[in-house]
Amino acid sequence: MRVISFWTRFHAPSSIRFSIVCHNHPQTHSSCNFRHDVSLYLSPSHSQFQWKNSQTLSVFSLVFSQNHQMEPCELSANTVIAHPRALTDKITLIRDAGPSKFQVIADFDATLTRYRVNGLRRQTSHGLLQQGNAYYDAKRQALYDHYHPLEISPVIPIDEKTKLMEEWWSKTHELLIEGGLTYDAIKKSVANSSIAFREGVTELFEFLEKKEIPVLIFSAGLADVIEEVLRQNLDRTFKNVKIVSNRMVFNDDGQLVSFKGNLIHVLNKNEHALDMAAPLHDRLGVDIGEEDEENVNMKERRNVLLMGDHLGDLRMSDGLDYETRISIGFLNDNIEKSLESYRESFDLVYLNDAPMWGALELVSRLFSTEAR
């Protein structure tokens, strides 16, 4: 539907929120397309306002306040905010508490990394691995072809899907061990891969590092692969970044022999697995003995920004007695079928493989350079 014009009359000065909702948008069906609310002042002599726009919108939202200044707005056709008032309240609470009480928890594949480029599905930390054995690579691909449609299906009950994900991950790890994966193969696979970060990820990490805000990357992928992707693609390490993922154990010849700890798949990632975390820089001379104290400090940071691309990612903060949580969901696929559940579950939803600039803007609002 194309919104041609809008007209309303009301008594001013006044404060009012209204929306034009169109449910037949070809991609989103329902969306809040402004990253910021628009604030306008209408004097008693100007009680009529007419808006015209040729853009195709799903939801147009304006806020009229008793402020005489007009704030700039930026149209973002890929942003969905179901409950803007609740989000504003959360932002206020987190800002007032300060950065010392704040942490970021983020999924890796299809959250920090891009889902597609030029219409082609980007590789994941599991998918980029080439064992140097075509037989085992083909068997892992066959598992992906079978289980991935089940992973993204919006109709399979969560308990049933959890069992399916456990099957998939267990079989994949068995193939990696059986096929004799080496650490050198990981380095080569990352170098030859098409995996790429969303625009804005480096800038987000840099901002959080300056504010001494920790970042936990929770991933159902492979910790050793993720670390190598970060090293090769960001060209630097971040002292505030920790990886919570499936960690490999290699023998003296650099060959994979087992996995450390419990299996982490897409539906069981949470802070109960924090003891499996290792800093990105743990191989660069950091005293690993300091980790226990770090983990205690993490649990004391009870305000959270959580980012994921799957409804199961909302569980990543389970085990943390958080006070205020802002959640960002990246809905990359099955938009028509999944949007309603995403918009009601996440505080913000970004569609169509959106960049990370929105998240950077959010934390900048929370803790500006002038903030404590």
Indicate the structural class: alpha/beta
The helix/strand series, from N terminus to C terminus, equals EEEEEEHEEEHHHHEHEEEHEEHEH
* Count of distinct strands: 16
End-to-end gap: 45 Å
- Unreliable stretches (pLDDT < 50, length at least 5) are 1-75, 281-289
The oligomeric state is: single chain
Round the Cα radius of gyration to an integer and report it.
23 Å
Helical proportion, percent range: 25-40%
Mean pLDDT across all amino acids: 77
Organism: Arabidopsis thaliana x Arabidopsis arenosa
Catalytic activity: a ribonucleoside 5'-phosphate + H2O = a ribonucleoside + phosphate
Keywords: Hydrolase, Magnesium, Metal-binding, Nucleotide-binding
GO molecular function, one term: magnesium ion binding
How would you describe this protein?
With 372 residues, the protein is α/β, with parallel strands linked by helices. 31% of the residues lie in helices and 21% in strands. The protein has 9 helices and 16 strands. It has helices spanning 84-97, 134-151, 158-178, 183-191, 201-210, 223-234, 291-299, 335-345, 357-366; strands spanning 5-9, 16-21, 39-40, 48-52, 59-64, 79-80, 102-107, 116-117, 120-121, 215-222, 241-250, 256-260, 278-279, 303-308, 324-331, 348-351. Strands 6, 7, 10, 11, 12, 13, 14, 15 and 16 form a 9-stranded mixed sheet that branches. A hairpin with a 2-residue loop joins strand 8 (116-117) and strand 9. Helix 2 runs antiparallel to helix 3, helix 4 crosses helix 6 and helix 5 runs parallel beside helix 9. GO terms for molecular function: 5'-nucleotidase activity; magnesium ion binding; nucleotide binding. This is 5'-nucleotidase. It is an enzyme of class 3 (hydrolase).
